[in-house]
Structures are given as C-alpha cells and as structure tokens.
Design a protein that fits this description.
four-stranded mixed beta sheet; 9% strand; 643 residues
Amino acid sequence: MTSRSLGDEPGVGHPRDTYSDALVRFEAELLALRAQARRVEAGRMISFLIGSIVGLLRGDLPVPVALSTTVSLVALAAFIALIVRHRRLRKTIRRAEVGEALASIGQARLDRDWERLGDLWASVDYDDPLLRPAAVDESHPYAADLDIFGPTSVRALLGPTPTPDGSATLAGWLSEPADEREVLRRQAAVAALARDYAGREAVTVESLLVRRVNPASWKRFLTWLDGPELFRTSDDGAPRLSPWVLHVARIMPLGTLALAVAWFFGAVPLIGLAFPLTVQLGLAWIWGSTLTDYFGNASAPSPSLRRYHALFAAWEDYATEEETLRSLQEILGGNTGTAASSEIRSLERWLDAADSRASMLHVFFAAGLFWDVHVAWGMERWRARAGARVRPWFEALGELEALAALATLAFDHPDWCWPEFVEGEPHFSAEGLGHPLLSETDVKTSDVTLEPPGRFLLVTGSNMSGKSTLLRSVGLAAVLAQAGSVVCATRAQLTPLRAFTSMRIHDSLTGGVSLFMAELLRLKSLVDAVRPDSEAALLYLIDEVLQGTNSEERRVAARRIIGHLLEENAIGAVTTHDLALHDDPRLDPASSKVHFRETVGEQGDQVLTFDYLLRPGLATSRNALKLLRIVGLDDAGDGTSLA
C-alpha cells in the first residue's frame, strides 16, 4: 500500500466549493419553504375563521342550513389538514436549517475559525462531550499535549457523533492505536464515505435531528434492558408483578364494562358498578409503585429516543458496496430479525404510551382499563423480542458515526495522504508534514524522519521558531494514522507506534507539586510506558526536558532519561534550547540534529520573523536578548545594557 491523498480519487471536488454550493442550495430551499409555510399559516387562519363564523351563524345566513353546515365542516377539515401540513413543513424547514448549518460548519472547519465553529454547533443544539474543556485528560499519554479533545482540537475538525456510542467509539480510536489490519479496514470505510458527500450529508443531517441521550438516563435504560422480567413469581429486589396480574388486567375491565352497559339500561344498581370500579382503582394503586419504578428505568431516555428510528433508517438505506459499511448495515438491517429502525420505532410508541401517565386523564385509564399493566406487558414483549439486539445496534451505529466523523476530515483535506504501514524496525517518516490544527494559509510543512531505536532526533532553535509544533505534527500524524484517518502530509510511512508526549507540564499549587516534580512524574510515566514485549514501539516526543530546574542539573537529568530511552524499543524526538546537550559523548553520536532559524530586523523595527523551515544541524542563533530589546527591556535598570 502506498501513500495517497483523497485528491487522487476520481470525482472528488474541492471541499470549499462543495460547502459553498451546499450553502446556496439550502438557502434557496429555506427561502421557498418559509414562503410556503407563511402561505399555509395564512390558509390555516382563513379556514379557521370561515369554519367558525359560518358554523356559528349557519342559522342566520341567507343560505340553506345544510349548505352552511357543509361549508363550516369543510373549512374546519381544511384547517386540520393545514395544521398537519404546517407541522410537516416545520420538520422540513428544520432539516434544511441543519443542512445549511452543516455547510457553514464545513467552511468554519476549513478556516480553523474555532469560535464560529462552536457557535454553529450550538445553533443546531449539538453538545459533544469530547468538545468540552473537561474532555482534556492531562494524565493521558498524549491527548492533552496534542490537542486531541476540547473546543480547539482534532476532534473539532471531525464530523458529529450524536450518540453516546459514537462519541465513545471515536474517543477510543483517538486515544489508543489500532493494529494495522484494523486501521486498513477503517481506512477503506472512511475513504468510501469521504467520496460520497451527498450520502454522508444526508445521514449527518438526520443524526443532528436527534437529541443526545443523557448518559445517566441511558445507563438506566440499559439497566432496564438487562433487568429481570416484570411479571414473575420470584422476588430479587427488582420491580415485579405476579403473572396473575395480567389475567386480572385482561378480564376484569371487560366485566366492569359489561356492568356499565347493564347499569346504563337499568339492569343493575349503581352500587353494582361502583364496587368493581373501586376494586380496580385499589388494584391500580397497589400496582402503581412497582410500575412507576419499571417505567422510570425503561422510559428514562425518552424523549431522546424518539428520533433514533429515522437515524437508524438513514444508515440502513445508505447506498454502499464497501465491505465494512455493509457488515455494519447488516447488523442494523435485520440479519438477526426485524430491522433496527422498525424495532426502535415500536419502542418509541411504547415509550409514548408510558409517558401518557403524566396526563390528567391517566387515573381514569389506569383504573378503568389497567392501562399501565397493558403498556408494561407490551414493553416486556418488546424487550424479550429485541432487547438483546439493542447494544449491537447502537454499537454498530456508533462505529458508523465514528467512521463518518473521520471521513469528514478526509473530505475536507483531499491533499492529505493515507499513511502507509511498513514492516521492520520502528519507523516514522513523513514528507510535507504539517500541523492539522493550522489553516491551509498558516501551515508550514517539513520532511521528517525519526531515527531507529538507539538514536533520536534532536530539534534545536530559538523561541517560537516551530520546535513544539513540529513535535505535535509528528505525534498527531501517528495518532491519526492509527485511528484510520488521513494525516497532514503528502506522504507518510510508519510502523505501529504508541505515542507518549512530555510537552505541556504544569505545576499544581493545590496539589503541592512543583513544575520540576510534575515534569519528573511525567517523564517517569513515559519511561514506564516502554514495554519491550509490545508489538508497537514507543514514540516519545519531549519538549524541553526539565525546564523547572537549573541548567547543570537539567543536563544531567536529560542525559540520563534520553540515554535510558535509547536502550529501549523506542523512537522519538527531543527539543531543547540547551545547545550543550549534544556535547555528551554518548548522546552526540546518537542524535540526528535539525533546527529552525529566525531573522531579526536590525534597521529600527526590530521585528522577529520565522520561515519555519527545518534545516539540518544545530541552531547557532539565539533570540532571548533580541526579544528583550523588542519589548523595550534593553536596559537592565542599573545602567547595564543588555545589548
């Protein structure tokens, strides 16, 4: 397999043009739909007025009463029909609004306009836990340093995952590398989805019309799925009713109804009807607490589940011949029974029936018909029929969402490449490697090759020259590659790697941890992450070893840590300002040296500029004193010049 980009695929246009065309299309559609909605609203009002006025004045009008009555009934029927039509139009308008927002979201992603991106996601009520600041896990081997999650992150460049399983699947893929076989399987599916913008747009719009299920409610729902039968004789602490309850609920209301008919015709006294009704009311009250607990778990995610049948149907109907996508569709499409969309729709109806308990009329149905018992029995039958398949359905849906999310990145960047996995000793190399979080106008690329175990890449350069960005570019390429995604490069090759970074280290005042101690703990975790028996070698990326201590101790510690990593099954890169680090007789011959360079205008403007070009060898320039001069601190305050 060779590295290639989506731009090499036939029929793939530039994403910016595609999003612009979609925006124009949805704007025109919304204009027409909203005009139609206004006409329907006007017609609804007119038909209501005509039906009401003619109906009220039908005896006073100079026309036959039969005619005025007919006109009134026709007008009121038209009013009801227009209400139904208006509701459908509102749904169609909402769908078009989501499509319009998606096109704008695509443009914001390309521009790396993070603030606008967040506002646009909020406009479609999409709240992704992976986009929240709390999603950043400082203890993870690389997620915090590489900006994998959070509002300004790799996750923000991907498509939506509205289900809990979708977010969990994507988080897992970005947090843990997959083996080569799994990566290639994902790549094929992602590439197929990326080529099909229209089909992916349709299912994405449908996905954003559902409401994310609250995790706590979803947990209760899963508890209900796995719980014991409601109508049983054993008592294990879970809600239960004796099987005879079903027989009573089926037979007794029929007898009461017969007594009601007899009482209506005077065949029995009122007490003959009041007595069974009182008994039924008492039974409904006795069973009520058990049924309340039962419905509380079962209907916990309602109304969030009410739109999921349409999302399942969209994926079931998605046209594809790609093997992975087809296998996931088979899980949803009923290879083990009825299709997921049909069963979820059936569950939604039962959940709606259960929610009727909030109605003021519920007590009459509960007492007169034992409504709750019949609804619970229907839900029990559904659970017995389809409950065991719910988890596989949502897991398959979650994987489809994660694949579509990665496909969004591949579609947005047709010039990025699919990485190539190679055999042999641990390896990473990339041509035209850039940082994916930078826009196409800001990104600078480099050709990078990491040395095999026993050697490392030493990156030097002045402040702000691009050292940290280079390390993050390497790390993100490795992470995205092993998630099944394209990477920000024109060509990339690697073996299976487990990334571990030590870059953004913070002290903790409340935890009593100094910067130096925090750095030591992070580096200790890095060293411990080396697993000689692992098929995937460690990829270490260290930015400025131990900044929290003095220069001499930093050099000693850095030499020991890097020396230890050189003895392990690991490859990596280290940045440093300390040019004396390479003087160590052990590290110098083991390092491949590259650097970045800056330019300072010396003709009065004192502007510091960088070309972000990676060059061989050690950096020879320094800019700390020049930066002091630029900010006006070229005099030390005691008459000593810093120049």
